[in-house]
Amino acid sequence: MWGVKFIGILALAFVVCATDLEEGLAIMACASRAMKVGVPSLGIPTYNPLKLKDIIFESDDYPLVFKFEFDNITWAGLPNWNLSAIQKSKDSDSDAVFDYELYWKHIEFGAKVYNESVVSEIFKIELEDTTWKGDFKVTKPNEHSNGTINKVGVRWETKNITASYTTSDDEEVKIFPEEFIKIIQDKIESDNLRNYIGDQIYESLEDVWWNTGKVWDLVQWCEDNPDNSAVY
Predict the structure, then answer these.
(1) DSSP string, 7-52
(2) What are 147-179's pLDDT values in tens digits?
(3) Which of 12, 2, 1 is nearest to 208 (CA)?
(4) What distance in Å separates the CA atoms of residue 6 and residue 15, rounded to the nearest whole number?
(5) Which of 27, 30, 114, 151 allows an S-S link to 137, with CB 3.0 to 4.6 Å?
């Protein structure tokens, strides 16, 4: 599945002691810029597009019984989100709690696909009006503790999916039946994927960004590179 690091960057809006929602939104805007241009000094590659790990996609539901292996997977449009959030806690509370929504108008996955009958084709899935919704809870840092990530919830929804592949003659073919598209949508919106994403966000924030203080290195990068980044 997907790498831990990029999912952690998605959630950076909430890793700033969470005493000010506007500051969190500004840091998220900065994270978007960092992902678009890449920041090698922080170990952030360009995410335009993001390169993902190989996966196997299969179904045992008759009559759509298949098994596809995907490699060279890319996700185009990842940093081009719109973020909204509601702070559910008071600034004076020791825990910060948010409801959030990340929205993408258009994102696109591409890959090489293999199965028993097809040696290699270029496969593409396009998603319109995609949202990640969820809640986030963190115990804020103080003089005795760096703080703790307590909860990350994610629900993935998308309204329209199209799938196609490009042949060796560079002809784009859209022949997948509605049943196949429905399987893709069910996989995307499944509890398994939702729980996986939430776990990866949690682990990345807690281990990669929060405990190491790396989020503040990103804040410093924003301050040193103000063009199109967050304003402080």
Answers:
(1) HHHHTGGG-STTS-HHHHHHHHHHHHHHHHH-BGGGTB---TTEEE
(2) 666 777 788 888 888 888 776 666 666 656 677
(3) 12
(4) 15
(5) 151
Peptide bond into 177 cis (omega under 30): no
pTM: 0.72
Tell which residue, 108, 123, 110, has the closest CA to residue 68.
123
Residue-wise pLDDT tens digits, 44-72 = 877 767 777 677 766 666 555 666 677 77
Q: Which two tokens stand for residue 36?
A: 């678009």
Q: Which residues make Cβ contacts (< 8 Å) with residue 184, sequence separation at least 6?
A: 125, 161, 163
Asked if residues 130 and 144 have their Cβ atoms less than 8 Å apart, the reply is no
* 200, amino acid identity: Q
Q: How many CB atoms lie within 10 A of CB 32?
A: 23
CA distance 21 to 185: 32
Domains of the chain: 47-212 (3.15.10)
| Core vs surface per residue 108-132: b (16+ CB within 10 A) or e | bbbbbbbeeeeeebbbbbbbeebbb
Helix (H) or strand (E) holding 193: helix 191-203
Contact 147, 138 (CB under 8 A): yes
